Amino acid sequence: MLDLATLRSSPETILQSMARRGLQVPVGDLAKTDARIRRLRHEADNLRAAQRSLGKEIAGLGGEEKRQAIERAASLASRVRELNARAGELSERFYREWHTLPNLVAPTAADGFTEEDAQEVRRVGEIPRFSFDPVDHEMLGERLDIIDTKRAAKMAGSRFGYLKGKGALLEFALINWSMNHLVAAGLVPMITPVLVREMALFGTGFFPGDRQQVYEIPADELFLAATSEISLAAYHADEILNPEQLPIRYAGFSSCFRREAGTHGKDTGGIFRVHQFDKVEMFSFTRPEDSSDEHERILGLEEKLVGELEIPYRVVNVAAGDLGASAAKKYDIEAWFPSWNAYREITSCSNTTDYQARRLKIRMKAQGGNRLVHTLNGTAVAVGRVIIALLENHQQSDGSVLMPEALRPYLGFDRIDPP
Predict the structure, then answer these.
(1) What is the spatial distance between Cα 51 and Cα 77, in angstroms, rounded to a whole number?
(2) Is 348 a catalytic residue?
(3) Residue 345 catalytic?
(4) 230 exposure class (CB count in 10 Å sphere: 0-12, 13-18, 19+)
(5) Which residues pair with 415 in a beta bridge?
(6) Dihedral (C-alpha) 25, 29, 35, 37: value to the nearest 10 degrees?
(7) Angstrom distance (rounded) from CA 411 to CA 288
(8) How confident is the model over 209-245, as pLDDT tens digits?
(9) What CA–CA distance (Å, rounded) separates 94 from 66?
(10) Which is nearest to 141 in space by CA: 345, 325, 395, 338?
(11) Which member of 211, 259, 273, 371 is catalytic?
């Protein structure tokens, strides 16, 4: 949620930021409504003070004078209720719109509105050159008998998959390997709930805008989390942290669930875009002045992991109009996928500044009053997409797939061969 102080002191800042996202927001109307609400409440406070003062006088009055004073006090009380009711109605309308506004875009975020407008930061690794015709991960999964989407579709519908045999072992290896790296880097490992309350989704900025992407369990007033970012962010909700504790860094593992509404016909084959997948997620709580450096640190950890997997990739600075609601700036790491002859996203990391902390009421002690912390998140391993990148980039002419050196101690084998 944005800071109301910005609306009151610098509405043009909000207007300019929304324009960078490609949004037309009635900032002027919001500012007028906010000012009207404050005027109504100020008037109500003044009348309440007059009512209290009159109440003290009534005790010393008598006869007609007392009766008139009582009537005047009742009139003031009625007017106070009327003003507060009007302010409440306006406030409800105001916040319905205010809560939909995304975070202010960082000045260093790339300009543009679509995925194609992302600004390339760097490329790392050599794109593989095959002496044979490479195949996509779906065919590799079938040949190696490690991915089964056909039986998954029969059981659960489209956009699901089974990992089996060495495919399942590959997932466990990726999780253990990445967690070991993150723990060594000072992150606290967490296994997070996948069922969350609405407050966690609102607090992280997924609601109200992305509600259509979230699976709901109405009978229990719970939702399936789309990422462990949601549970990790809400872990310190309504808390005041000691600045000496910061930064607090977590590495959360969970299954993730997404409806993928609006993606009909897009990436329907294999396990690239599915309704359920597993992920290791990094999350940080920092001092506001440290969040830019923390963002680069998270990106560095992501690059280290992808580099050890020997996957060619590029880093992009995501365009302002393609940012999620809570992000002020986001980097994506896009791996090379031979079957697409293109780079596709496998990790992202976002600086959400104080947007989530304001909604979740996460503060730190400071001189002159408590301050909001900043929150950041980043993908360590999105298991399905990383498996795809490994299979496609490391496939061999005999149909096998070589495993990168970094994973072999966790796997107990160095390649996956056709059965």
Answers:
(1) 7
(2) yes
(3) yes
(4) buried
(5) 402
(6) -100
(7) 40
(8) 999 999 999 999 999 999 999 999 999 999 999 999 9
(9) 41
(10) 395
(11) 273
